[in-house]
Structure formats: C-alpha cells, structure tokens
Amino acid sequence: ITNALEVGCAAGAFTEKLVPYCQGLTVIDVVAQAIARARQRIKEPSRINWIVCDVQQFSTDELFDVIVVAEVLYYLGDIAEMRAAVKNLVRVLAPGGHLIFGSARDANCRRWGHAAGAEPVIAMLNETLIEVERLECRGESVNEDCLLVRFRNPISAS
Ligand SMILES: C[S@@+](CC[C@H](N)C(=O)[O-])C[C@H]1O[C@@H](n2cnc3c(N)ncnc32)[C@H](O)[C@@H]1O
Fold first, then answer.
1. What is the pLDDT, as a whole number, of residue 47?
2. 34 lines ligand 1 (CB under 6 A)
3. Which residue out of 35, 72, 137 has the highest number of ligand 1 atoms within 8 Å of its CB and is therefore the one to mutate?
4. Cα-flanking dihedrals φ and ψ of residue 60, to 5°?
5. Could you read off the pLDDT of 78-111 as tens digits, one per residue?
6. Max CA-CA distance within the chain?
7. Going by fewer Cβ within 10 Å, which terminus of the chain is more open, N or C?
8. Which string of b and e fits 105-114 if b means at least 16 CB within 10 Å?
9. In this structure, which residue's CA is closest to atom 16 in ligand 1?
C-alpha cells in the first residue's frame, strides 16, 4: 500500500497490523487519548502521520489508495452526519483505490441507540463506489454480528 488512511484507531490494535503493509499511513481519531495510546503501541512512528480530528472535518490534499473505517461511523449523530463523513472519505480516495468499511449490523446499532449501522452506510458508499466483496461476520451472540465490505473507486488510475 503506497498511502493508507485509517479512521478511528482506538488503541491501535488494527493500526499495528496495517502498518507493515504501508509505505505511508495517516491515522485519525477524534479522541486525543486514542491517538496517544496507538502512538505508544506502534514502533515505526516515522511512517505514520497521526491526526486528532473528527472524520467529518478531516481535510487534506493527499489521496489514499486504501482507506479503512471500521466500527466508527455509527458514533456520528445522525444519518446526515454519516452521509457527510462518507462524502468526505470518498473525496480523498485515489482513483482505483479501495475503501474497507466495517460496522455492526443496522438492527444492532439502532437497538443500542445509534442512528444507523452497517447497511445504510453501505448503501451510501454504493452510490459512488463499486462493492467488490462483502463478508458477513457472525459472532457467538447477535450483538457481535457485523459486515465488512471492500469498495473500489471506479474512477480509473491513469
Ligand atoms: C470501536 S473503536 C474502533 C477501533 C478500530 N477501528 C477497530 O475496528 O478495531 C471506535 C473509534 O472511533 C473513534 N471515533 C468515534 N467517532 C469519531 C469521529 N467522528 N471521527 C474520528 N474518530 C471517531 C473513537 O474515538 C474510537 O477510537
């Protein structure tokens, strides 16, 4: 991966797995303590650009060939905010780049009091990106069920 973006790193468990595959990696999280904990965990700081910010406000001139956003977007306040965040992420996805989206199922998220879960966001992403593969993950309890979907930006890299 030439240049990746991870949204919502929490304590950096996935960041640690992702970083060996990346020449460059930008990691954002709205909670400063999450960034601090993830930074402590990762031993290759030079390749990582750490940013404390809300995914809705994230802005850069860079384009990313891989974006990972897992178990983050249901924390946003409503569907309009989710749509704005999706639009923001699609804007920074390179032509031909891949976006990996993960989320608990919609029914679970609504039961937990969130505005929406996986399915409505997947529908939004499908408005501009091409769905390449989908994994339906089933946990021991229904609360652990989630969807993982990989999308490709159909604008081709020239
Ligand atoms: C459940 S953790 C997900 C961790 C990791 N992505 C994973 O799948 O293991 C959610 C993370 O998203 C972050 N987050 C929540 N709302 C956010 C927002 N609006 N912008 C950026 N990060 C956000 C939280 O601070 C938290 O670290």
1. 83
2. yes
3. 72
4. -160, 160
5. 999 999 999 999 999 999 999 999 999 999 999 9
6. 45
7. C
8. bbebbeeeeb
9. 75
CA of 7 to the centre of ligand 1 (A): 7
Q: Is 10 in the pocket of ligand 1 (CB under 6 A)?
A: yes
158 CA to centre of ligand 1 in angstroms: 33
User: 55: Cβ below 6 Å to ligand 1?
Assistant: yes
Q: Counting atoms of ligand 1 from 1, which one is nearest the CA of 76?
A: 19
Which two structure tokens, joined as six digits, stand for 2? 């030439």
State pTM to two decimals: 0.96
Token pair for 38: 């993830």
Q: Note the residue count of the chain.
A: 158
Low-confidence residues of the chain, pLDDT below 70? 44-45, 157-158
A 10 A CB-CB count for 141 gives 8
Domain covering 3-152 assigned CATH 3.40.50.150 in the classification? yes
Instruction: Tell the burial category of 1 from Cβ atoms under 10 Å away from its Cβ (0-12, 13-18, 19+).
Output: middle
Instruction: Indicate the DSSP class of residue 92.
Output: T
